Protein 1
Amino acid sequence: MSEERTEKIRSELMHRREHLLIDLRQKNAEAASLLDAGVPDPGDMSLIDYLTDFLHLLGDSRREEIVKIDEALLRLKEGKYGICQRCEEPIPLERLEVQPYAPFCVGCQEAIEREESLRSGRPQEGKL
Ligand SMILES: [Zn+2]
């Protein structure tokens, strides 16, 4: 990969990271102000619970993305960027354009997702 391209990806990743951090801070502030506002009516309690959960989930997905971006930046630094972390084949550029921090090629990503759903879908592990 050319120096120029690496630099472009790095700045895109940094930009995305910055955006996510700002977003995360905003969401946290929103959640905090919601809680600070108190519950005007006991009937609203479930709404506040719902909103707080929702904001937490949102925050978690942002945090996960930031971690992925950090990992991609590290791979970029080590010259391993764009290489599938599982089969070590190059990840197609079209995929990296859509998801610049993708650690796996499409095939491996699908295999991992299948494995994960198998694992979580298994009823009572160890009791076959
Ligand atoms: Zn792969």
Protein 2
Amino acid sequence: MRRASRKKNIRALFACVSVVTALPAWSWSDHASLVWPLLRTQPNLMEQTVKAEPLEQFLIAEQAGIAQTLESVETWSLNTIAHYPPTPQSLQWDPANEPTPARFFAAIRVNPTLPYRLYVDEPPAQSASGRTLMPWQSLSFLSGGNAQLATRYRSLAADDPVTIAEVIATASDEPDFGMDVGLFEDNGTAFGAVYGFGKTPFGNDNLDYGSQAPFHMGFYHLDWLTRMAQPDLLRTYPLWRIALFGELADLAFRTGHDYWGWRFLGWGLHYVGDLTQPYHTVPLPGVSTFDGLLLVARGKTGEAIQLVSNRHGVIESYQYRRLTRALVAGDWSAPLLLAVSAQQADTPQSYDVMVGELTAASVEAAAAFDAVIAANMPDRFVSDPGFEWTGSGYERGVVEHVLEQKGPVAIQRLDDAVILQLQRFSVVASRWIARGGRAWSDEQSEGRRNE
Ligand SMILES: [Zn+2]
């Protein structure tokens, strides 16, 4: 036991030497397609509609409530989250000021240059609605991943009806649009200079979205040696984002702003989803002590990071292709879709307990997940440190490449490994969405909607 834990420590120390490079953060590619199989089994979410509400309207109506909510999230974060950087006083939401979106974005410290429009990410199984679609560039300043570029986005006008399921699915992908990009003081942005997050703790400077990594990855279970040797790895903030958006959702539901209730809940769901991805909770999964020592001795830590980065990217492309193929075909009995739809749970949990348990399970799963990927993906994709997966052009055909080079048994093993992670996602996502269901039915039983 003792030897095992010492090994783990040594490994972690070496593994973390240069985590600064290559940690892609488009986790699970497209979050909307991830959550659809779960949503479609809940008729109340699929059928009930809410009216799209411009953000300004919510901010003006609930100016005082927002101040209270943000203040209590701030206090909770200072008390609960180690290394939480306090919100600078000048950014705090003050009811004496005009309640503008710009002030709100500053108070919740997100990238203020995104348009945060009213829009829908159309379900993959739905045939094209014939309505005018919006280009990706009208929603984000990022170049976009394959998933985003392939998605159909449709604009909503104020008061347009939209199903709850559509609001959740759409919003759950939105934090990858650049909401957390450029928030550190060394990112060269005017807002990053004043947000109080300090210098970027880690991330890949070569990616336009690289600086979002510390908000979408949560290294909450590092051992003491790593904590001492690499304290920057402790500066990760998904727990804060989850609590922030969870509380804003509660406020919106309590005050009858259902659209914003579900949209904030969807934003929070994004980070919950990210944390079920093992590569988002462990800096370098599957690197053994022995290998770690050899790597350091040979000065090849960078190669190990490249491999992990490639495995992370390859498995995301793979699961995205497998999931969307089944979704587009409406093949609801496909094991991958059943994994997401069949694991429903609704027990309430506090934010920190939920995130603590969720990330512990992801850490636990990481080495085995990594090993299955290493053994069953084409060698070039996952075992060649000279190869870069991102932008390699193989993403689209990844499933066919596996089939050709590793055979159907590899597909089966990779599916099984992905299914285990999807089942975990389904449990936490169900629990998270149930928060909204509870708030929604409380509000309905109080009759507030009809006032
Ligand atoms: Zn993310």
